[in-house]
Amino acid sequence: MPRPDAGLEVPGDPGFLERDSGFRVYEIHGRRYKLPLVDDVSATKERLLMSASIMFARKGYAAVSIRDIARANGLKPSSIYNHFQSKEALWAAVLEHFKKTHLFSFGHLEKLINQARTFEEVLEHLFYEPRRLNNHYLNHGFSLITTEQVNDPLAAEAFHFIFKYSIDFIKKKFDDCVARGLVQPFDTQVVASLIMSTVHICIIAKVQEFEGGPVVFQAEKVAADLERFILWATGQKPAS
């Protein structure tokens, strides 16, 4: 649901391009991504974290080796071990980096929502990214922890942390809207859970589509329809 400032695919020349305004831009597997500086780490290390995250999401943690990651980045395996002691250490760093990027995105989103003057504007900010779903880095990261949480405790912890944090964040913003008189009282917990559950399904479907799988449904349309439904259900918009 965050605006796509973290992990946004951007056009232009390949490679590590800039480090200004709190962002870096990388090329990862043929696509360029704008990533916030969530840690004081080298460009190489951060590129490896993003690359490993996407590769793990595509093939599964068990199917990707350090050699695979090194080859995809034009490095020798020893270069990766300069940053991470083992594959397990890289895995833990990938999950931690994904959580921090997620929190950074919500921090930016909160600033936008706090400036909103109507409930409709709040929803517009919340649904900005779900209506687009072009944030491939965060999409793959969420798909990764969804898949791996079944067998991996670290992935399970990351999944539950992000899911709960997101629901709590949305509920709090809705509660603030009710308190400010921007909308009539409604069950903010249920609606927040509905939004996250729907966005979760949309992200998984979008990743499958991105990786060449079948198009189950138009994920962006589902998100946009849910936004309109919430506006209607809370009395903000007539049914159309």
Give the tags.
240 residues, four-stranded antiparallel β-sheet, elongated, disordered N terminus
Written overview of the protein:
The protein is of the alpha+beta class. It has a single domain, classed as Tetracycline Repressor, domain 2, CATH 1.10.357.10. The chain is built from nine helices and four strands. The protein has helices at 43-59, 66-72, 77-81, 87-114, 119-126, 136-148, 153-179, 188-210, 219-233; strands spanning 8-9, 19-20, 23-28, 31-36. It has a four-stranded antiparallel sheet, covered by helices on one side. A hairpin with a 2-residue loop joins strand 2 and strand 3. Mean pLDDT is 82; it is low at 1-20.
Provide a compact summary of the structure.
The chain has 240 residues and is of the alpha+beta class.
Total DSSP helices = 9
CATH-assigned fold name: Tetracycline Repressor, domain 2
**What is the level-2 CATH architecture name?**
Orthogonal Bundle
Distance between the termini: 24 Å
Structural class: alpha+beta
Q: pLDDT under 50 segments (min length 5)?
A: 1-20
What's the CATH class label? Answer: Mainly Alpha
Along the chain, the helix and strand elements come as EEEEHHHHHHHHH
Strand content: 5-15%
Could you report the average pLDDT, rounded to the nearest whole number?
82
Strand order of the largest sheet: 1-4-3-2
The share of residues in helices is: 55-70%
How many domains comprise the coordinates?
Answer: 1
Radius of gyration from CA coordinates: 19 Å
Tell me the layout of helices and strands.
Elements: E1 8-9, E2 19-20, E3 23-28, E4 31-36, H1 43-59, H2 66-72, H3 77-81, H4 87-114, H5 119-126, H6 136-148, H7 153-179, H8 188-210, H9 219-233
Helix pairs in contact: 1-4, 1-6, 4-5, 4-6, 4-7, 6-7, 6-8, 7-8, 8-9
